[in-house]
Specification:
about 240 residues; endopeptidase fold (from Nostoc punctiforme); six-stranded antiparallel β-sheet; globular
């Protein structure tokens, strides 16, 4: 039964990875500019062009459907570590996303040891397989207007088998940062102590995180390559001028 389920899951993964026809690249940074801007530890958000991207964008109410982790140029198999639908957790070259809309999200103030630990968690995860249960669940949301109220959509992505050898793209990165107690979008409660209010952060389970959460997080800086490398609007050539 497991082998049949696995074969069906792989077939569905191949179907979900097919590109759609109406993808619009509108914010594409050249590969070399991306490479000059990225630092190890950065999260690269991607607006994908596949059927599964459509489902994830619907469920998360967001542009971003995929997240990858930048480990740097010292890795011959690729600068990124990501959870791929068909191949599991793999190295990937930055060139894979050179024609896609992307966004860089950068953690702030990590110590060198914390950064090493986060990178180690990601590289140690290489070889983990993508959670095939996630694929079966995502298939339900490829209808034009799936009947899922918006307030329930985040829970819809808290899927998967719970098997630690399996991975989903954003949950793997969230798990790595939670290892060093770096916040993404914690649940915040206010507690009164000795007449003073203080905020207590509660960790959300890593399975609840989606690519958009790194964009929304107040603890990750949004880095835009064009601006980082000296953008000057006076240098632009406008057609009407």
């Amino acid at each position: 039964m497991d082998s049949i389920r696995t074969r069906i899951g792989r077939g569905l993964a191949a179907y979900l990875e097919k590109p759609v026809a109406d993808y619009m690249p509108f914010s594409v940074a050249p590969k070399e500019l991306l490479r000059e801007t990225l630092r190890p530890g950065d999260v690269l958000l991607v607006e994908g062009n596949t059927r599964v991207s459509t489902a994830i964008k619907y469920l998360t109410h967001s542009t971003w459907s995929h997240s990858a982790f930048y480990v740097g140029t010292d890795h011959p198999d690729g600068e990124l570590v990501e959870a791929d639908l068909q191949n599991g957790v793999i190295h990937a070259p930055l060139s894979k996303y050179e024609n896609f809309n992307t966004r860089i999200c950068r953690p702030i103030g990590l110590s060198e040891q914390d950064l090493r630990d986060v990178i180690a968690h990601m590289t140690d995860s290489l070889g983990r397989v993508y959670d095939l249960k996630h694929i079966f669940d995502l298939m339900r949301y490829l209808l034009p207007q799936p009947p899922v109220p918006q307030r329930f959509r985040r829970r819809m992505l808290a899927l998967g088998s719970g098997d630690p050898t399996r991975a989903i793209c954003s949950t793997l990165i969230a798990e790595a940062y939670q290892k060093v107690h770096y916040p993404i979008l914690p649940r915040v409660e206010t507690e009164q102590a000795r007449g003073q209010a203080r905020e207590i952060l509660h960790i959300r389970h890593h399975s609840l995180f989606t690519p958009r959460d790194f964009d929304l997080s107040p603890f990750f800086r949004v880095v835009k390559p064009t601006i980082e490398h000296g953008f000057d609007h006076r240098d632009l050539s406008w057609s009407h001028l």
